[in-house]
Write a structure and sequence with these properties.
Layout (H helix, E strand, L loop, with lengths): L8 E5 L4 H12 L3 E6 L2 H9 L5 E5 L7 H13 L4 E4 L14 H29 L2 E5 L12 H24 L2 E7 L5 H14 L3 H11 L8 H12 L10 E4 L8
Helix pairs in contact: 1-8, 3-4, 4-5, 6-7
C-alpha cells in the first residue's frame, strides 16, 4: 500500500527548524506541495531551497489572533486546497512554577495551544472537502507532570485533549486527526541544554549527552527525522484507521499509560 501523498498540499507550522524542518523535508520527498509558516522569512527560504517539490513561505507570528486564518487563506489561494495540516509551532518556557510570570503563561498558550486551535478551525472546511488530516506535534511533557515544565506540561495536556475532541468531530466530518508526542529529540534547543550540562560538569558534550539520556531512562536521544517519519505516516492513507491516536515517539521514556 502506497502513502499516496504526491501532489497533495500540506500546511506546516513551526517549519523553519528542528522537527518542523524535518517534517518539511520528509513530506516534500513524498511529493507534497507545501506551505511553510514560521516567523523568520530567511530561515523559511533556506528550508525551501532544500525542498524537492513546490513550496512557499508564509512568515507569520501565530500568536496573533488573526494570523492562523491568514495562513490558511494564503494556502488555499496558492494551491486551491489543503490536504494536511501539521500543527508544530510553539515552544514553552521552562522554570520554577513560582517564578513563571503571567506573560510566560500567556505566551506559552498563545503560540502552541491557541495557534493549533485557530489553524485547525480555519482549515477544517477545506480538510472536510479533501477528506484530509491534521497531525498535532505535542510532547510527552503532557503525560507526566514535572516541576520545571509547568507551562509546557499544561499546554501539552490541553493539546492531547484537543486532539481527541477534533478526532471525535472528524469521524462525522471526514477529517482524520492524530498526534505525536516527541520525547527528547536532538534539536538545537536540546544541544543548548547538553552544552550547559557539559560545561557545568566539565565533561565532553558526547559524555554529557550520554549521561542526560540515562537520566531520562533511555538509551539515546531521538532525531527529528524519526518524528518526521511518524508524521508522514499519520498524514498518509497508511494510517486511515487511526483516529484520535496519540503516538509517543520517545525511546521508551514514557512509562505511564
Amino acid at each position: 500500500m502506497e502513502p499516496n501523498l504526491t501532489n497533495k498540499v500540506a500546511v506546516i507550522t513551526g517549519a523553519s527548524r528542528g522537527i518542523g524542518r524535518a517534517i518539511v523535508e520528509r513530506l516534500s520527498a513524498e511529493g507534497m506541495k507545501l506551505v511553510l509558516a514560521a516567523r523568520s522569512i530567511d530561515q523559511l527560504n533556506e528550508v525551501i531551497e532544500g525542498c524537492a517539490t513546490e513550496a512557499c513561505a508564509f512568515p507569520v507570528d501565530l500568536r496573533l489572533e488573526n494570523s492562523p486564518a491568514m495562513l490558511i487563506e494564503f494556502a488555499v489561494e496558492k494551491f486551491g486546497r489543503i490536504d494536511v495540516l501539521v500543527n508544530n509551532a510553539g515552544a514553552t518556557k521552562r522554570g520554577d512554577f513560582l517564578e513563571l510570570s503571567e506573560e510566560d503563561w500567556a505566551d506559552g498558550f498563545a503560540l502552541k495551544f491557541f495557534s493549533t486551535v485557530r489553524c485547525s478551525r480555519a482549515a477544517w472546511p477545506f480538510l472536510m472537502e479533501s477528506r484530509g488530516a491534521i497531525v498535532n506535534i505535542i510532547g510527552i511533557g503532557g503525560r507526566t507532570g514535572s516541576a520545571e515544565f509547568a507551562i509546557g506540561g499544561a499546554v501539552n495536556a490541553a493539546l492531547m485533549n484537543l486532539t481527541k475532541v477534533l478526532a471525535d468531530r472528524g469521524i462525522n466530518d471526514g477529517v482524520k486527526v492524530n498526534a505525536i508526542n516527541p520525547g527528547t529529540i536532538a534539536t538545537e534547543r536540546l544541544k543548548v541544554r547538553i552544552n550547559k550540562f557539559a560545561t557545568d560538569r566539565k565533561i565532553s558534550e558526547d559524555l554529557a549527552a550520554s549521561e542526560m539520556a540515562k537520566k531520562f531512562g533511555i538509551s539515546r536521544f531521538g532525531t527529528p527525522d524519526e518524528i518526521a517519519s511518524a508524521a508522514a505516516f499519520l498524514a498518509s492513507n497508511l494510517s486511515n484507521y487511526c483516529q484520535g491516536a496519540i503516538i509517543d515517539v520517545d525511546g521508551g521514556q514514557t512509562r505511564t499509560l
